[in-house]
Amino acid sequence: MSARPTGLSRRAVIGGAGAGLAVGAAGGAWGGRASAHAPTDRGTLGAARVPFHGPHQGGIVEPAQARAEWAAFDLLASTRRDGLAALLRGWSAAAARMTAGEPAAEGENQVALDAGPSSLTVTFGFGASLFDKVGLADRRPEALAALPAFPGDALDPARSDGDLWVQVGADDALVAVHALRVLARLATGLAAPRWLMSGFARTPGATPHPMTGRNLMGQVDGTNNPRPQDPGFAATVFATGPDWMDGGSYAVLRRIRMLLEGWDTLPLDKQERIIGRRKSDGAPLSGGPDAVERTPVDLAATDPDGVLRIAPDAHVRLAAADSNGGAAMLRRGFSFHDGLLADGSPDAGLLFAAYQADPARGFVPVQQRLSRGDGLSRYLRHEASALFAVPPGAPAGGYVGQQLLEG
Predict the structure, then answer these.
(1) DSSP readout, 337-389?
(2) Which end of the chain is more exposed for a tag (fewer CB within 10 A), N or C?
């Protein structure tokens, strides 16, 4: 069985890329739970803790938990810089207590009291619109420039962007939902909710051994995600400036609906050709029958008749770092299933998050290439989008964003 070891610290795992499904990585922050989990019994799952304080915020390099809650907030017109500081101070204090398995505050309703911290992480991000509202336009980083429009986007403004972003993850849904409710209450009078999205990934221990997860298309998803032990990992994921963002990251978010009814009617060989990997085990089609999931993708491999084994429009070809000038990002995604649309088709797909030092060198070039030629794009709809600056972690006694607001 697989579960996070109690007391796992981000300091122990922080230190480049082909792609599994480059639009997401439901298998975990680095394509599987094996890197961060040791065999244990199910009873330790709820006791696992991820410290809130540290050089980087939680919820970036940790494997994707079983449940995720994303929420964006907009500041009220009356909220100024001191109000934002008070909000972030309160959010950080509550998050530190909850990630330690303690009640968020005296007298809070303790909905999740008996569940344990369950690897709870809380991550905060700042949208580009925030800086003008609090008089800090001159400190808005260049990397927070608006993402370009991509062919095929059908974005809903009401479910995109925002002044503030909160990501809550936990291996127990009650813990995650409760944490978000606490944070939303603390925002009363300072910020209003803009949108909310909920997602899920495989629960630790659900497989007989740690495995890369699958998305709702049934594909092994996240195989070639960068790992903390890879050379250049920190340079790929974490920013070095401006000063208040040193050690932070930039999160690109996309709500991607999968057209599952059309996808599910495709024969298996067609699905595998579109992705470039076997569906059964995630092995690249370039590797032949003896390939395994971790076999490197060979984009030049051909069949005896000279036909490329990885099709020209295959997802793994167009998403590979070698196809995009070395562009790479840390993908950390969650599946979602929000019921049925008016036509009876499932409103389901992927909540995709990509962390990188600079979106102009990570997400943007990859998505531009995918949107123009990826065979998988016919079965996807990008319906919401956002970009947030995720500041570095807070030291003990401090709060996230303190250097920006008080520096």
Answers:
(1) EEEE-TTS-EEEEEEEEEEES-GGGTHHHHHHHHHHH-GGGGGEEEEEEEEEE
(2) C
Show the beta-strand stretches assigned E in 76-137: 121-126
Tell me the pLDDT tens digit for each residue of 316-329.
Answer: 999 999 899 999 99
- Active-site residue flag, 221: yes
Structure tokens at 15: 């230190």
What's the distance, Cα to Cα, between the start and end of the chain in Å? 46
Coil/strand/helix, residue 404 = helix
Q: Is the model's pLDDT at 364 over the cut of 50?
A: yes
Set 161, 163, 172, 221: catalytic member = 221
DSSP per residue, 196-248: EEEEE-PPTTSSSS----B-TTS-B--TT---TTSTTHHHHH----SGGGTT-
Q: Provide the whole-model pTM.
A: 0.90
3-class SS string, 341-355: CCCCCEEEEEEEEEE
